[in-house]
Amino acid sequence: MWIKKSQNKKNNLQNQSGLSLIELLVAVSIFSLLTILIAGIYLAFTTSQIRTKVAQRLLNNAQFALEGMAREIRNNEIYYRDYPCNQIDLGGGYLAEKCIYLKHEDGAIAGFAANIAGSRLFYTVRDPVDHTWATTGFVFFNPLENIILDDINFLISPAATDDPFVEGGPNQHPMVTIQLQVSTRADKVAEQITYNLQTTVSSRFYKR
């Protein structure tokens, strides 16, 4: 009787001595799945944060440029004169490709000039004596931020060829629609952002 009890006790101790191989494999599998799940959630959260930060920086730069141009156009007269954009040197060997000219109340001629390949958008002023153009400050050019000017258009209505300020021209208040496309220069997909912005503004100056 004593021998039988001792044998039963020994068998119980052996059964409780550790996990079986199957139980161990199940535990490892569950732990691995949980680790992968947590890592995936963390990676997705981090990627989302990075994308949001990059997108906000790009949007801030684009809105700053758009609002600055709109304010300048609103407060000055649209200058309907045929000055080629490529007269304006934007630095780095880049000449302006697209531009809009404005006339201030004091008669000074200024405007905005852009070169898409060089990702440059500058405010420029014409010298009243020799009529050369000089950039006085950038509107959208910050290579350190890896921000790209993809395209810009100044759509003047009525068209620049139909000067509304001359007798017999279209009796229409001049308006400008600015179309701006910007993006980020990035290798990572999460940081590749593009924005298309547009605004229409009318000059407060009209002589008819």
Describe the structure.
This protein is of the alpha+beta class. The protein has one domain (43-202). The chain is 33% helix and 28% strand. The protein contains 2 helices and 8 strands, in the order H-H-E-E-E-E-E-E-E-E. It has helices at residues 2-15, 21-74; strands at residues 77-78, 98-103, 109-115, 120-126, 133-138, 147-157, 175-184, 194-202. The strands form 2 sheets. The chain has a 5-stranded antiparallel beta sheet with strand order 1-2-3-4-5, covered by helices on one side. It is elongated and about 95 Å long. The termini are far apart. The model is unreliable at 1-5 (pLDDT under 50).
Give a concise summary.
This protein is α+β, with helices and mostly antiparallel strands and 208 residues long.
Overall spatial form: elongated
Distance between the termini: 123 Å
In DSSP terms (H or I, runs of 4 or more residues), the helix count works out at 2
Total strands: the figure is 8
Can you tell me the number of structural domains? 1
Q: Largest beta sheet, briefly? A: 5 strands, antiparallel
The fraction of residues in strands falls at 25-35%
H and E string: HHEEEEEEEE
- Average pLDDT score: 79
Unreliable segments of 5+ consecutive residues: 1-5
Report the radius of gyration as a whole number of Å: 33 Å
Structural class: alpha+beta
- Order of strands, main sheet, comes to 1-2-3-4-5
Helix content: 25-40%
